[in-house]
Amino acid sequence: MSNATPEVAELVYTRVFDAPRELVFRCLIEPAHLTHFWGPTGMSAPLDEITVDPRPGGVFETVMVNDADGSRYPTRAVFVEVVEPERLVWTETGSGVTTTSTLSDLGDSRTEVRIHQVNVPEAFRSREAQAGFSTSLDRFADYLSTLVRASRQENVVGDEASS
User: Do you find a cis peptide bond into 74, omega within 30 degrees of 0?
Assistant: First the structure.
């Protein structure tokens, strides 16, 4: 009998974004938004290589490109569940990783996103890989803040024009 603790092949990331839940959800399913933040720092995701069909059985395909050396990392997943604007579940066809993103409205235009991944390969569970994933969330937060600032400026301009 072994006393070793079995490795848990799952990861959980939780982040609060200063953006309304509907906007956060749209950014997660619309390629025009995904191209701005998908992937860790040092990677890009070309718009013409993102395909999203947000319905159960629909595909979620991306290619991340290493900005330094041009290495390409395609990912193909299939949506299992889509509940707008609360929940997205997809399974990557190559790795078997299933990702569940749960979006909770915290009020005051803030959204908590909880990302739960299961069947995560060991290489993706390393500290370096988790740190890289966290930079993706940082990039997402930065992108959302630009959208929220732009929306607020449009509202101010609209208010001034109507008065």
Answer: no
Q: Could you count the other beta carbons within 10 Å of the beta carbon of residue 156?
A: 10
Which contacts (CB < 8 Å, 24+ apart) does range 57-62 have? Answer: 58/82, 60/90, 62/34, 62/38
pLDDT tens for residues 120-157?
998 888 899 888 899 999 999 999 999 999 988 887 77
Which of 25, 71, 76, 133 has the alpha carbon at shortest distance from 34? Answer: 25
Q: How far apart are CA 74 and CA 95, in angstroms?
A: 12
Distance CA 65, CA 139 (A): 15
Neighbour count for residue 63 (Cβ, 10 Å): 19
Closest CA to 99 of 114, 112, 110, 84: 114
**Burial 118-143, CB ≥16 within 10 A → b, else e:** eebeeebeeeebeebbeebbebbbeb
Instruction: Flag whether the pTM goes above 0.70.
Output: yes
